[in-house]
Amino acid sequence: MSDMDSLFLRIIAREIPAEVVRENDRVIAIRDINPQAPTHVLVVPKKRYRNAAELAAADPELLAELITVARDIAEQEGIAESGYRLLFNTNADAGQTIFHVHLHLLGGEPLGGLTGGPLRG
């Protein structure tokens, strides 16, 4: 898949509409179009890395920034106190279907265990 095929790069370029929750020069956060919880936001680096492991090796500061942005959004959404989940799907067997790393922020209700099947994305 080329960089131009990345769904997230097309969203960043404003070729595809998305509900942007937060954005800075390195990160964009958008609402998931198929939410798995009342709050389901994807925190995406603007530079494309295939998965969380690749991002961690190449730019650990950017990885930390994704988590910081997710924390700030959880506070903004009013779910920080009650709790939220941060999730990376890394490669196909984990349910990753878009190979541009993104962090899922989920919350707004009790989430229970992860036995209900993988989150796709």
UniProtKB/TrEMBL annotation:
GO MF entries:
catalytic activity
Q: Which residues form the HIT domain?
A: 7-116
Q: Which domain of life is it from?
A: Bacteria
The residue numbers the entry assigns to motif Histidine triad motif are 100-104
Signal peptide positions on this chain: none
Tell me which residues this entry annotates as catalytic. Answer: 102 (tele-amp-histidine intermediate)
By what name is this protein known? Histidine triad (HIT) family protein
